[in-house]
Amino acid sequence: MKSRLSHKRSVPEQIKKVFSAIGSVKTNIGHLDAAAGVTGLIKTVLALKNRQIPSSLHFQEPNPQIDFANSPFYVNHKLSEWKTNGTPRRAGVSSFGIGGTNAHVILEEAPMIEASDASRPYQLLLLSAKTSTALDTATAQLHTYFEQNPDINLPDAAYTLQVGRRDFDYRRVVICQDLNDAVESLHSQDPQTILSHHHKSNHCQVIFMFSGQGSQYTNMGRELYEVEPTFTEHVDICAEILRSHLGLDIRSLLYPKHEEIETASKQLQQTALTQPALFVTEYALAQLFLSWGVCPQAMIGHSIGEYVAATISGVFSLEDALKTVAKRGQLMQQVPPGSMLAIKLPEKEV
User: Fold this and answer.
1) Nearest residue to 37 (alpha-carbon basis) of 90, 96, 91, 89
2) Over the stretch 87-121, which tens digit does the pLDDT of each residue have?
3) How far apart are CA 346 and CA 259, in angstroms?
């Protein structure tokens, strides 16, 4: 197995000499026969990882038939730093077999990946295994790993557990805010922060259900509005469309200042404002789930929730839906308490 490790690539190709280190695993562990190629690959990967060029052991002088001085190569006879002028480190690995069964590969160092930012205030740690005992073992191993690596980035770990692992039938999810919280939850198995489930192979469909009037309250969805950009975006879009229909910013009632909570709560009891507020919250929440890949097989709604389901289904546009919801709320508020309002007319007359 031969490997060539290149660096210092700042001069024109045609005049470059003695810039590429050359070595062999034979000097380390002897002739390897069929394992030479993979061993050379491992050696080169480790060289890239550690950014060091390993020594060709016992080298004293080259064969006089090799004109190294006028070639790109030199024998690296001592462990040395693998320097670079800003370009990625690269290495070629060659394994030469009897009868021309040769293999060659070029490796390039992986790009630096920065750790994620603080992300959300809460993280979900997902675990799954083929048996309940294996799931318990995985949980214990994750607990030990977190204890031994206090500097780990928790959002990155949560992401890897979610997208970098296979899904099996025995599943567990841990809800935590930070690493200490995760360690404590994994240790205590507190049912308030940890949920285990045996997933059976039958297909479970997702259904979106949207509630009607009476479920509203101030600050509903406030944390989502503050930390989830998708939720925020759709609330803001709806609020701007509703301005001309309501004569106010619905966000001032949904997320009021502390000293205005009591006033906002009273206003939210008015049907003309209740219904648009519920629509905005339910619509933005549905869009958030959709952005996460949670797609419903069907939807159902009660009262104002029916309008949310219809909008997401494409029955009418968001602008038309908000205009209709605002007018609906205004008309319903005008009838005596406890009364219902229905319009029995053909579509054209309405």
Assistant:
1) 96
2) 899 999 988 877 777 889 999 998 887 767 768 88
3) 47
